[in-house]
Design brief:
binds iron/sulfur cluster, alpha/beta, five-stranded parallel sheet, binds zinc ion, two-stranded antiparallel sheet, Rossmann fold
Length: 310
């Protein structure tokens, strides 16, 4: 079999089906770095004076986001970069992620903050899972608490942006999930920068989230992280599952048959996003402060307090 060549003449290691291009190691890595920078620039994700906190999980995606963001921010004195990781208390899993995150941040010279569910809620995701009914999804409970802790602690750290490791697959899945559930409000809060947080409704209670990996497929992030030998934890959360993974499997099949499908889902969604935001503007519930935890919520008691029984 003839080895395929990259346009630079070197041996190709990857075939990018949706572009029809063969790429060598160097050109592949450069293309990922270029895409990352382009996304950051296109959506004005960073500005002078920012304190960017990367929400690490210890996995390949957020580790890559931190690595690439550090590459942009390091030469700049006007932007501060740090990282946080949430310990939900998932035995045998998150402790390993935290070890990897600590090593990675130490090597990069980035300050890492660890926040624990046990300290904040008095219980862990493992505790919650023991009491869950079989029809309930673990991520519903854990995810809502994770989001709340990330926002709350980002405010505490005086972050101006939270950088998430969400990639193309995550975003395309979320678009479809919101569509299938008919959740227009949640859909209107998506996008490369959560503008939701900058509106007067909720205002300063939300720290804007940025997603510089949203135009890079998960598969390519994995290859990039492995080529660069980034220190990340390779196993998945044992509770991972539910509706998102049904949608993920469906998208995987579609993408195989129709390369570029995930891009077109996201591109089309971005086109209708301004209209979506306008359409929910008048029906959007007012953001209040949760009576129990003080975090932003559209109800008197927020979802996290309700689910976690705070
Ligand atoms: Fe929590 Fe689900 Fe993420 Fe596991 S996969 S850490 S249960 S949100
Ligand atoms: Zn090349
Ligand atoms: Zn609350």
């Amino acid at each position: 079999m003839i080895a395929m060549k990259c346009s630079c003449g070197k041996k190709a290691i990857f075939f990018r089906k949706y572009e029809g291009t063969h790429l060598c190691r160097i050109c592949f890595c450069r293309s990922i770095e270029r895409k990352f920078r382009k996304t950051v620039g296109k959506y004005h994700m960073i500005s002078p004076g920012d304190h960017i906190v990367v929400a690490l999980s210890g996995g390949k995606d957020s580790t890559t986001a931190l690595y690439l963001m550090n590459g942009i921010v390091k030469p700049r004195r006007d932007i501060r970069l740090s990282a946080m990781i949430i310990d939900e208390g998932i035995r045998g899993f998150r402790s390993e992620c935290i070890k990897a995150a600590k090593r990675f941040c130490k090597n990069l010279g980035v300050e890492l903050h660890v926040f624990r569910f046990r300290d904040l809620y008095g219980k862990t995701t493992d505790h919650i899972m023991k009491k869950l009914n079989p029809e309930e999804e673990p991520c519903t409970y854990c995810g809502v608490a994770r989001r709340r802790v990330i926002n709350k602690m980002a405010r505490k750290l005086k972050a101006t942006k939270v950088c998430m490791g969400l990639h193309l697959d995550d975003e395309a899945e979320s678009v479809l999930m919101n569509y299938l559930r008919g959740d227009l409000l949640r859909a209107s809060r998506m996008g490369p920068v959560t503008e939701y947080s900058t509106t007067k409704n909720g205002g300063s209670l939300f720290v804007p989230r940025i997603k510089p990996l949203r135009e890079i497929p998960e598969e390519e992030i994995k290859i990039y992280a492995n080529i660069k030998k980034l220190d990340y934890y390779k196993k998945h959360c044992p509770y991972r599952g539910g509706f998102r993974f049904e949608v993920k499997a469906m998208l995987k099949k579609l993408e195989k048959k129709h390369p570029g499908m995930k891009f077109s889902i996201l591109e089309n969604f971005d086109k209708i996003l301004p209209c979506l935001r306008k359409s929910v503007k008048y029906t959007e519930p007012k953001i209040l402060k949760c009576r129990k935890c003080g975090e932003p919520s559209s109800r008197k008691i927020c979802n996290a307090c309700e689910l976690w029984g705070n």
